[in-house]
Design goal:
The chain is of the alpha+beta class and about 350 residues long. The protein is about 20% helix and about 30% strand. About 40% of the residues are buried. The protein binds zinc ion (2 copies).
Length: about 350
């Protein structure tokens, strides 16, 4: 007889976060102040403004009920310049210390936004400054260096990036895959990568998943192409403090969503129990071949499910989809975490 083990506890408060966002400091259209107000008024608790190659501390915008995470987005390309037919990689770096605005592996070819308003003059540079190299080896070294300097790293929008899948599966050290990037989803219709995530988990990669807007706000609120408020991450910290939120992210106490929410997921006596908002389908993946699923009858929805877990499952993750086609996804949990 096993004890009940919560993968998502009904007793933990969930905080809504957008972990990927651009402002006028790079190629976004809104100021940091406007972004904070927009997200706060839409019920978000946490925002990371992650401008391209521009580490910046936005703590002055934080208040008692709204947290600003410090971070930025980095590029690594075969030839530094943007090429719409070539591969590239984007990583988000989040600083454990909100005051940490170090630039990892500075490469002047990517410094256009820093040069625009002389922010480059006060830049704190760390790591290796040879020209960035688009190779698995260099990228893994980059992630390692970022971690040594107090950052945790996410792997962003794999479909948009056109990165080779074989390379993606070799990247190491990042803590979470951006399973849905809403900005890209709006432009390419396919930036939801549950299938890629399963490949990572099948390979035994202990990587979490999150959703984010990657908003640039070229279209106003209410416009069908508005890239805000489409994908988010629910984070479940012990308390609402920067440290605690960071701990929760590092421990994978979070899930990705485009709308649906999870109320509870628990494992007991070899069974998994799921409670969520009203959805069309509930899937439990233990690999790609044999997920368990509950699908609502035509015109109906479901909000809970119970399945027997296969003892030999290499991992478990839950994915639901609502009547609008919006997903929510937990991370993968491995046998040692659920027994
Ligand atoms: Zn990007
Ligand atoms: Zn971005």
């Amino acid at each position: 007889m096993n004890m009940k083990k919560y993968l998502i506890s009904p007793d933990k408060k969930q905080y809504k976060a957008n972990l990927h966002c651009h402002s006028v400091l790079s190629d976004g259209c809104k100021t940091p102040e406007e972004l904070k107000e927009m997200y706060k008024s839409h019920g978000y608790d946490i925002l990371a403004i992650t401008d391209h190659e521009r580490p910046r501390d936005h703590q002055s915008l934080a208040d008692e009920d709204f947290m600003m995470l410090t971070g930025y987005e980095c590029y690594i390309r075969p030839n530094a310049r943007y090429d719409k037919y070539d591969r590239e990689i984007h990583l988000n770096l989040f600083a454990r210390d909100p005051k940490n605005i170090k630039m990892v592996n500075f490469d002047e070819r990517y410094a256009a936004y820093l040069k625009r308003d002389n922010a480059i003059d006060t830049l704190v540079r760390v790591g290796d400054e040879r020209p960035r190299e688009y190779s698995v080896e260099y990228i893994n070294e980059y992630i390692k260096t970022a971690k040594e300097h107090g950052y945790i790293v996410t792997y962003n929008h794999p479909y948009w990036s056109m990165d080779n899948e074989s390379d993606i599966l070799e990247y190491d050290g990042y803590f979470s895959l951006e399973i849905c990037n809403y900005g890209s989803y709006l432009t390419n219709n396919l930036e939801y990568c549950g299938a890629l995530y399963d490949k990572m988990l099948c390979k035994g990669k202990r990587v979490f998943c999150h959703g984010a807007d990657d908003n640039h706000n070229g279209y106003p609120e209410g416009h069908p192409r508005c890239d805000s408020f489409g994908a988010f991450t629910m984070i479940m910290p012990d308390e609402f403090s920067y440290d605690s939120v960071f701990d929760a992210m590092e421990k994978g106490e979070m899930y990705a969503s485009m709308g649906p929410t999870f109320k509870e997921i628990s494992v007991e006596d070899g069974n998994i129990h799921i409670e969520c908002s009203d959805v069309k389908s509930i899937f439990v993946y233990v690999g790609s071949k044999t997920p368990s699923c509950l699908i609502a009858n035509e015109g109906e929805t479901v909000n809970c499910a119970d399945f027997k877990l296969d003892e030999n499952a290499r991992y478990v993750r839950v994915s639901v989809r609502d009547i609008y086609g919006r997903w929510a996804d937990t991370r993968g949990f491995f046998p040692d975490e659920i027994k």
